[in-house]
Amino acid sequence: MRRKKRPKKKFYQINQYIKADQLRVVDEEAKQLGVLTKNQAVRKAQEAGSDLVLVAPNANPPVAKIIDFSKFRYQQKQKDMESRKKAKSVDIKEIRLTPFIAENDFNQRMKKAKKFLEGGDKVRLNVKFVGRQITRKDFGERVLNKALEQLEDLGTQEFAPRLQGKLYFTQLQPKKKK
Asked: Which pTM value belongs to this model?
């Protein structure tokens, strides 16, 4: 059984643990307070009853924000969730065919492939040669070409059909909708 990898928690330097001497300080409303020393910035944060959080350590000078740390972490979590919603995952669905497939079986698989492409998933078409069928590669090519003809209005071919061992395959990606 595989374990899920835990996402690494991002580490933020706060208050006296900030290593930089000079900081560009920003308040909660993103209003700049100017470039201050670390001690001045920590004092301002304590006066406001908040924390000083280093938000851009690679900037010159580094940027720190005066904000309650738990509120800051909550905002970061919300941003991450929002970005995950926007990212669409594309699955690769596999349709298996044989060189001597019956007409109805072929039609059923083409219906399934069309449904996958309309749903925005990539489709890999595999023609598997079993036993001595490998001696009749032309039948496998014919089946794959027929499938590609039926799916050409919904998807574009990512790469030319290729033979690898006893599999003859190609992959389609859905066409962009206008």
From this structure: 0.53
